[in-house]
Write a structure and sequence with these properties.
heterodimer, A: mainly alpha, rod-shaped, B: 250 residues, mainly alpha, 0% strand, transmembrane (chain B), Cyt_c_assembly (chain B), heme transmembrane transporter activity (chain B), cytochrome c-type biogenesis (chain B)
Chain lengths: 66, 250
């Protein structure tokens, strides 16, 4: 460890605002990227499923009418 | 060879092969980034001149390297799309551009914040910083051009051309610290020499760089797969695939 305590680590020898804001922005953008990619994938699959269901219902109705 | 390239360019084949690769890259990224962060933040020694503000290097350098790599990847994908009309290359380009812009922003922001305690200023109009800012605007241009056309193909072509033209900025950024007088220090990692800093400082940096690369690959694979679902949604295999998913998860 380069620091005596957790408080010393958080204080970063007086450089806390610089170190933590730079790391914070980097971490935030990475986390947002992952969350967005997951949400995007889930939403696309749900949309495809909805469309499949709609078309299946539609073709069933057509056969019923005949 | 040509058969292989053709196969690689097929969205269906890519979708299948990337399904197996993607989790490994996510896992590698998670491990490398956690190890690199703990190592860099808590265990690496502080710099004898800069103190602990030097720990910004562990996000600044990987983000800056990724910013360049993403743009190079954009140019390669753009070239492939323009020459061979391989749609997959354009799908990859569409998802790489926003991430590259984000990385450029991280590099600029962390650099500015680092500049305050180190140089006494958060911004100077010197060669490295200015060329990096131009890089950010090039990313914005590529992203905006893609959406500026009524037809997807026109937007894709325009974005590809800008990526190919804009790639000229990459060597300018790289050599800016040698060609001009600049506040910015020269590269930490070169292929030919050992880093000028002790190993317990640059090893965590290497871990972080590898972690960022794995993250980039994992994210690009994941989002290219989504892009395939979006653009190929009329294809039989894509619709069958959606039915195989329970409740829209994974």
């Amino acid at each position: 460890m380069a620091f005596e305590s957790l408080t010393a680590l958080l204080a970063m020898g007086g450089h806390a605002p610089y170190v933590w804001s730079a790391w914070g922005v980097a971490a935030a953008l990475l986390i947002v990227s992952v969350a967005h990619a997951r949400a995007e994938r889930r939403q696309l699959i749900r949309e495809l499923q909805r469309r499949n269901r709609r078309e299946r219902n539609l073709s069933e109705r057509e056969t019923d009418e005949r | 060879m040509w058969a292989f390239i053709h196969k690689l360019g097929s969205p269906k084949w890519f979708y299948a092969i990337s399904a197996r690769l993607t989790p490994w890259f996510w896992a590698a990224a998670a491990v490398l980034l956690v190890v690199g962060s703990v190592w860099g933040l808590a265990f690496a020694p502080s710099d004898y001149q800069q103190g602990n503000s030097f720990r910004i290097i562990y996000v600044h350098v990987p983000a800056a390297i990724l910013a360049q790599s993403c743009f190079a990847a954009l140019a390669v994908a753009g070239g492939i799309y323009l020459i061979w009309k391989i749609k997959l290359a354009d799908m990859a380009a569409a998802v790489i551009a926003p991430f590259g812009a984000a990385m450029t922003f991280v590099a600029l922001f962390s650099g500015a914040v680092w500049g305050v305690p180190t140089w006494g200023t958060w911004w100077v109009w010197d060669a490295r910083l200015t060329s990096m800012l131009i890089q950010l605007f090039l990313y914005f241009g590529v992203i905006a051009l893609r959406g500026a056309f009524a037809s997807r193909d026109s937007g894709a072509k325009a974005a590809s051309v800008l990526a190919l033209v804009g790639v000229v900025n990459i060597p300018i950024i790289k050599y800016s610290v040698e060609w001009w007088n600049t506040l910015h220090q020269p590269a930490t990692f070169t292929l030919t020499e050992r880093p000028a800093m002790p190993a317990d400082m640059w090893l965590p940096l290497l871990v972080m760089v590898l972690g960022f690369y794995c993250f980039f690959i994992a994210l690009t694979l994941t989002r290219t797969r989504s892009e395939i679902l979006r653009r190929e949604s009329a294809k039989r295999w894509v619709r069958d695939l959606a039915d195989g998913h329970a409740g829209g998860r994974r």
